[in-house]
Amino acid sequence: METLWFMIIAVMIAAYVVLDGFDLGAGVIYLGAARTPEERQKIMRAIGPVWDGNEVWLLAAGGTLYFAFPLLYASSFSGFYLPLMMVLWLLMLRGIGIELRAHMENPVWRGFFDFVFCVSSVLLCIFFGAALGNVVRGVPLAADEYFFEPLWTNFRVNTGDFGTNNGILDWYTVLSGVIALVTLTAHGALYIVVKTEDDLNRRARTVALWAWPLQLLLTVIGLAATVWIRPGVLDNYKHHAIGFVIPLIVFGSLAVLMRGMLTGKEKMAFVASSLYIVGMLVGAAFALYPVVLPASTDPARNLTIYNTAAGHHGLSIGFTWWILGMVLALGYFFFLFRMFKGKVRLEGEGY
Amino acid sequence: MDSALLVHRLHFAFTVTFHYLFPQLTMGLAPLIVVLKTLGLRRNDETYNRAARFWARIFGINFVLGVVTGIPMEFQFGTNWSHFSRFAGGVIGQTLAMEGVFAFFLESAFLGLFLYGEKRLGPRGHWWSAVAVFLGSWLSGFFIIATDAWMQHPVGYAKAADGSMQLASFWDLVLNPWAWWQYAHNMSGAVITGAFVMASVGAFYLLWGEFVDYGRIFVRVGVVAGLIFSVMQLFPTGDGQGRLVAVHQPVTLAAMEALFASQPGAPIVLIGQPNVDEKKIDNPVVVPNALSFLTYRAWRAEVKGLDAFPSDQWPTNIALLYFSYHIMVGLGTLFIAITVVATFLLWRGKLFSSHWMLWILLLALPFPYIANTAGWMTAELGRQPWLVYGLMRTADGYSKTVSAGNGMFTLLGFMGMYTVLGILFLFLVRREIEHGPEGEAGTGH
């Protein structure tokens, strides 16, 4: 039961990153790729009807995490207090940027809210990457299963006796943040390629082309750094060789992504990028399992799916309604994306 | 009081009070928008459709603010109240996760369709999308109320070996009688806000002499809905909720009424300031025997006062609780009076020319917000000193690892952020209202 919920939550988080990832990425390239007011309008129209719904996946994943692993939620959310609050503020600023720029006719304010939207998108990508980095690296869990991380300490990855000294930001988590930024930039650019035509389409394509070698390089560096700071991440792979399918998917999807761009198959490139993101996240989840929050202090203090899960009765009841809810939700999203499919144009209704 | 506890309590109180300004309007407007869409479909009159679109734009602005201020609420369960979450997550995780899975997806997916897909959906499809948004927002309300109701009146749980609470009966949790009374009372309160806001904007148009066709529709729908739900707010929902408090939280009832001494034929205090130190009411104006009658349906029934309970069970802020409750009830009575007179004038065909009444409707706009806020303060201050009634004290629930300084830092951050949000919100809504329901340019998208 715990394993099942671990997988469900991993899938929901992956769904959130793939979905909100493209509108975050669209925000990153927004100022650079869209030069004229019409082009900016087009990006807004491409993400306008869906960004809010995409963000709901974060809430749903958070709610499900709370339900299935209450102790993990309690410990990690209070431990990551400061960065989480900043994520909240950035999400607000970004929402303000999107909504307000739509309501402002004055170019001065429009430009200002465009800027707010772009910068908050960039920072959110970095924060989310750094958050994943923190989970992989481990946090200074105390004996009572709680911790509190300052924003930064000495920027080193500390382990063992020094493990209590870790901060949110160190070289490893900053690297994770940069990987997330590059990945989501490419992801968002590919979405804009799918949704637009002409100059904007060409510029978004250029962004994705430039991001590709960087993405490949950072993937290799990221994997190497992870194995270096935490050799234990390979254990699950050693015991279950099936796990090596995941890196194959990661690099395979990068190859397909490039092929899709070179042959002009825009949708294929976007799907490959989604698959790449899913592969990276599933790879991390596979390496951690059954640990959900490693302790940088003492492995005996690791939070696992077993010591953080809710009661069995609640978990099995929850599975019934969760399946029902997800079938419904997938139905809505299928319908929503079908209604707004195709390239965006400026005439007609909408953002 | 431990200062970290105070900071964490203020943190939640501030963010949730600000947050609830938005959902109460979206939940209240949603059924009224369905009414407008239905009238438009039935009478085949484009005016109603434009009216519905206008309110959908107001709804959309409120919805976005509700979402961005709602995410911090979910987060704070973990960030600021981690000991509570560890203790109660095994039970209330059910309702909170169900809100995400059932309500949010429904609401956000169909709101996108409702706002931007009218031409693609056609009139009937668009009506259905309005219904789906209504359902989603009301489902969301239910799951939150069910969560709060469990904290007020815990049911369906069992204590696990590690001391945490775990779900024992799913149906006990979602069929908690407290949840259903509180839900009815709360949703009725939300519709009052929706109805008064609609009537207020309508009155503004009529007094202004612009968009008068719409003004008449808004005033008519607002006043009639306002009357129905203002009455329901008193009876049966308020009465039912009050009697649950009397049975399950008698000490809360005593504090709400500032009844210091147990007595037969207990009075209701209409006006007066509770003097907790001297255990009396200053400058009281009372109705003798009324509290006994309302609680037990007998004029001379004995009602327990605060002296019947040990003082460590007393709500921690009796004066604020007393005033919250009295403001709520006082304003609720005022809403009935306003809507009765307005409905009478509407029936006599004089409402649209009665400028004095239109002015009252216009200026009444803030009061349902105050009443709803005061109602929630009554519920939550009344629950003190418990976080989960009888099971966990508030002082044991906050995040011990998050210092008062860090809590203060983010509280100030939220205060700054919400000041900006509040100003932008007022600016946007004012713009929509001045722009009026005709034409689509108001979206500017």
The oligomeric state is: heterodimer
Structural class of chain B: mainly alpha
Quote the average pLDDT of chain A. Answer: 87
- Major sheet of chain B: order of its strands? 1-2
**Proportion of residues in extended strands of chain B:** 5-15%
Using a beta-carbon cutoff below 8 angstroms, give the protein chain pair with the largest interface and the number of residues from each chain: A-B, 70 and 73 residues
Number of helices of chain A: 13
Characterize the biggest β-sheet of chain A: 2 strands, antiparallel
Helix content of chain B: over 70%
Low-confidence stretches of chain A: none
Number of domains of chain A: 1
- What is the H/E order of chain B? HHHHHEEHHHHEEEHEHHHEEH
Q: Sketch the major β-sheet of chain B.
A: 2 strands, antiparallel
What would your notes on this structure say?
The complex is a heterodimer of chains A (351) and B (445). Chain A is mostly helical. Chain A has one domain (2-339). Chain A has helices at residues 2-33, 37-47, 51-68, 70-79, 81-103, 107-137, 171-195, 198-229, 235-239, 245-262, 266-288, 305-308, 312-339; strands at 291-293, 303-304. In chain A, helix 5 (81-103) packs antiparallel against helix 6 (107-137) and helix 7 (171-195) packs antiparallel against helix 8 (198-229). The N and C termini of chain A lie far apart (43 Å). With 445 residues, chain B is mostly helical. Chain B has a domain at 183-392. Chain B contains 14 helices and eight strands. In chain B, strands 1-2 form a two-stranded antiparallel sheet. In chain B, a hairpin with a 3-residue loop joins strand 7 and strand 8 (392-393). In chain B, helix 1 (3-20) runs antiparallel to helix 3 and helix 2 packs across helix 7. In chain B, 53% of the residues are buried. At the A-B interface, helix 3, helix 4, helix 5 and helix 13 of A face helix 3, helix 4, helix 5 and helix 14 of B.
